[in-house]
Write the structure tokens for this entry.
Amino acid sequence: MTNGRSANGSVPLPDALEAAAPTPAGAAAFAAPPSSAGDPPSVVTTSAVSSEAEALSLPPKDVSVGPHVALWVENLTVSFDGFKAIDDVTLILDKGELRCIIGPNGAGKTTLMDVITGKTRPEKGAVYLDSRVNDLTTLSECEIASLGIGRKFQRPTVFPNHTVYENCELALKGPRGVFRSLFMRTTKAERARIAEVLETIGLQDLRAQPAGLLAHGHKQWLEIGMLLAMDPKVLLIDEPVAGMTQPEMERTAELMRTLAGQRTVVVVEHDMEFVRSIARKVTVLHEGRVLAEGPMNEIQKNPRVIEVYLGT
Amino acid sequence: MSTPPSTPSPSSSPSPAPSAPPASGAPAAAPVHAPPAPRSVLGEGGASGPTLVNKPLPISKAGAGLRSRIYGRAGWAIVLGAALVLAVLVPVLNTMPKAFPLAIPDYAIPLLGKFLCYGMAAIAMDLVWGYTGILSLGHALFFALGGYGMGMYLMRSIQGQGVYRSNLPDFMVFLDWKELPWYWRGFDHFPFALAMALLVPGLLALVFGWFAFRSRIKGVYLSIVTQALTYAAMLLFFQNATGFGGNNGLTDFKRLLGYSLQAPSTKLFLYILTALALTGTFVLCRYVVNSKLGRVLTAVRDAESKVRFCGYESTHYKLFVWTLSAMLCALAGALYVPQVGIINPSEMQPSNSIELAIWVAVGGRGTLIGPLVGALLLNGAKSWLTAAFPSAWLYVLGSIFVLVTLFLPRGVVGLVGLVRARLRSRATAAASASHGGPS
Amino acid sequence: MARGWMGQRWAWRSHWMVAAVVGICATLAGPGVRVGGGPARAAAATGTVTATVTVEQAIQGLSDPSDEVIVASIRQLGQLEDPRAIPVLEALVDDRLRSGADKRTWIWNSKTRDLVDPLTGAVAGPSARPAREVEVNNDIRRDATPVLAQLHLASPDIGVRLAAAEELSKDNDEEASALLHRALDREKDDGVKEQLALAVARMDLSSPNAETRLSAVKIVHRTGNDGFLAELQRLVSTGADGKAAETDTRVRAEAQEALNAILSRRRLITTFGSLLHGLSLASVLLFAALGLAITFGLLGVINMAHGEMLMLGAYSTYSVQVFFQQHLPNLFRYYVLAAVPVAFLVTFGVGVLMERLIIKHLYGRPLETLLATWGISLLLIQSVRLIFGAQNVAVANPDWLAGGVEIAHGLVLPFNRIGVITFVVMVAVAVWVLLYKTRIGLNVRAMTQNRGMAACVGIPTDRLDAFMFGLGSGIAGLGGVALSQLGNVGPELGQSYIIDSFMVVVLGGVGRLAGALVSALGLGVLNKLLEPTVGAVLGKILVLVFVILFIQRRPQGLFALKGREA
């Protein structure tokens, strides 16, 4: 079930969504027609209007983005030395959504994450969080992180010389000031929170192990745990199951599902099985542009997507 | 939820599940699942396992992930014991009659004091290099500036009693200067001079660090730039016009706070002061590295961009530890000068800073005790060799640079840890073999 | 200086007196007393100079025992203006004039130890000996010198005329002035004319006539000769009493303009000289920086012993020089050419050794490499100290590198600096060709960009590492050869260049040779240009501060590799 904005700009109410879902018109409305390059992605409307092919214009550029939108990437263009890594991409994520971004190598998935987290600056475009007005592309990485965007990297990056516990402690949401860190002691509540995180990711038995000695899969989970500890509003997860065994993958899928709902989760992955197991809405990127967007089964049937990425 | 074990260690973090050993310093309360780690009572250092990554050194032992506040009981015992030895036993031995077999001769006191000052500088350097990963090749600049601050006070305190019997220091009279430059004013008051000796290098460190860290200069670039900084400062101070004595520097000191600098009692007093300052520095640094700030610093060293993604402004953290380290070095320099009697611009030369780095490397980076050991060892060796085989010292030093970086990346302390781990595993192997026995 | 003028006046007076006495005596003594010595003596007796005296006769008079006759003869020679008199007058002034036993004038040739005829140069026969030296006192000398100058002025040789003009211009009397004016009118050659005009101008500057002074200053202004600096400054100055030294305003204004022109020209020359000095410093820096750009830029290795490669190159040159001195002294002037390959091979070898034994094990750990190479530098310095001594050693420029060419007044281009600049250009071109036009260069560039891939396609990364490190060190060794020709060679030679080389590489940006080139040039020239204004030390400090600040703004340097990975 996807959320979206209706053509006239009003926000559909949740019950309206529930009501609209089962009708065939509504079902038809969920199909996302393939958008050609450069067009803004058509956002599915839930009102039973014969406007399935109606390409929505972008949401009006004013402050009231709406409380349901978690992240709004607007007309983003990133180029490196003339090569356009991301070409006029617009992405809207609703709160609590679990979105998967897929696409061939070089499609711009990691670059997109780089821009959102502040590691790379775009040539054009903006990124907005919640209903805030400030453009994330003008902030530094730590500012963005403190605003509530967490990222898990492709290669597991944990602090190798710190224990699992310390890793979580460092990531734990809280004051980040120099002098606070010098004088403050971990409170009981914080300790409880860390323990909770460790339990969620299943590493409480290894809490005293230096993170560098962990197995690969455990490192991935630790990193996810650190993300949890940061308590972000938006989680960007870059290839979480790379190199995992099947049981590990299943656990990770479960983790992703529990994460979404309270938070917005964006997952970049190549493994289609995994994507299928977690995905609600999928965005396909190709050569820096949004190729298609919609539920997984629709995407899989989309001829262009098949041609470009999934293969026969 | 697990309950904290009843250990007396002043630990702020909760006890982990029984599978993990309790905080360092206390005896093991439960059987461990994690491999037993060599328990250095000082709570630090040691090779607990394979080197995880090239640059950083394991600072938390496997099995003791939860750092205690500063020390466990045994740790405090060691530290206070060492402080007692340095600050009390040595002076006592010095005041013994010379016939006493363990008596320490008078000339050794300022020498030891000098070594302890170097040790302080080395510990300060470890803060930025071992724990934060910033290899500064210009740290001796702060040491020298602190020394100059104290030197200026000492020069002013003998006004009217120099060779030229003038209110101005001798070298100014020699240069035909008529009045005291503005930046010398106030240095006839000891508190002001001491404050300046600490604040000026601190301010310089703050400004330089702000510029450097803000533009994300790191690694070898930063090292080169710090080297250039100290070189430029050295050139500046070599000029007579700068007003710090030119290439002769400040010397010919006579009195400190009214006490003659030549008197053995003053020297002893200075030595004791240095020993106490060293202990204080050690404890302070230990506090810093054990706090959350310290953990952030090592995280910055290991994976700075990850730290930033966790929301920490790494620039501020680096700036803090950089300035703290500079001020500790300056304090060391300020204590150094009255004991050696001279300060000149060659203290600022790049090779001094590089030697400082090698003391830390030889002792063991990221351990605090290692750099102290390294500083004492190398300076002791230097004093002995330059007296016994003068031309050999540079060969020895050069070889140490090469051999330590190649073969002993974790320094002497690391070596000790390695040996202990080997012995321990051999002991456990022997124990289990004898337990198993025949049939 | 009224010296000659006064001397001559006295000679006149004494002539008159002597003439009067002799006349009286002659009249009193009767016709029996005869004044001998021929026409010269007659001329002396009467105190007049007759035009009928020939050159030969005047020359003859030079060896007369009487001083007055000598002086008269000198004046006659001056009047006659015959250039053949020049050798004999020169001999007179040099104390080489002799009076032969045959009463004839002879010139003594100290080289062949012969008496020669003043006019023909023929060697005297035995009848002339023994010869008596003609005593020349200061009066005679004072008379002879300007006459000599005057004759020189009429010499067919341009160089002689020029020298005479300069000489005369230093005399500040009317006779000299008249002589010069006459010569100026007669002169055909432009260069000599110019010089004569200057000489005249110099004297005219102190003329009481304002118009004369003005025209003199105008001439000085036109020629821009900075030998007149002192006079011009005097003309525009005010005395201690506040009164201007020069009363005429036009003259003063003209003098001020001339002064400004001369000073600005001087500044230009000094600047150009500094520029050149800066270029040669930049050349040495470039040698060091090229090598460092290769080891650091391409291999990622910080080599603190790089300065010592410079030093080893310099000492190799010294050793080659000693070898040539002892075994091949005839070919000594070519020792530098032999030193080039020797220095290269030595430092190349040391570099390869360093890489194989030590640096190879430290790849990926730049800070440790820094420390280890510092240790190596200590070892190298100490070894050199033990082998060659701690003092500086002397390396001499071969003859074709010594000296210089003067391209403008006061500006000399030393050959050794020109040589160094040429050398560095050659080496830079060679390196560029190696890196961009050869297979090895292609392999190295591939290795720099993606080591793993390069290894996969079969590039021998290991061997190339050693080769490139050796090459970088070798280039520094060549820099050492250049350094040896420019300055002192001592064990600590490298230390003073290491920081500068690092600054060059840091400023220029890592990974591009062009960056090293541009920043070496820039820093070298900047350093030397600052030197005259703020002094060498402060200049160096300013350059260092500039680099540090520049890096703040642009941490990747001037020409950094762009892109996502950079």
The longest strand of chain A covers residues 69-80.
